[in-house]
Amino acid sequence: MADWFGVAPEAEFGPGSRTTIDVDGVPVLVLNVDGEIYAVEDFCTHDSLPLHDGSVEDGEIVCPFHGARFCLKTGKNTAPPAFGDLPTMPVKIENGIIFVRDARWD
Ligand code: FES
Predict the structure, then answer these.
(1) Which residues line ligand 1 (CB under 6 A)?
(2) What count of other Cβ atoms lies within 10 Å of the Cβ of residue 93?
(3) Which of 7, 18, 40, 104 supports an S-S bond with 31, CB 3.0-4.6 Å?
(4) Which of the listed CATH numbers 3.40.50.12780, 1.20.1630.10, 2.102.10.10, 3.30.70.920 matches domain 4-101?
């Protein structure tokens, strides 16, 4: 099982916070949306462009390039022009630190 990667102290990552970290060579976007922490690959499945500047609406991230939408909880693609789902990463908080794990090889 892959290692957990530290993201930030929970106390410094309040609602509205977002960052992109490198997880085994994959950029992972971590967001706090209304107190819930989500982690998704920072690549839109349409044209492999970064999602980190996208807006968040109704629990979905909107690609800033062509408007594809993805559920942050499940990664499911909910609007074209992308059709592939977005890989999500498990999140945990331990001793006040937010961690994500690369689950691609589970
Ligand atoms: S790169 Fe995201 S919708 Fe085109």
Answers:
(1) 44, 46-47, 49, 63, 65-68, 81-82
(2) 13
(3) 18
(4) 2.102.10.10
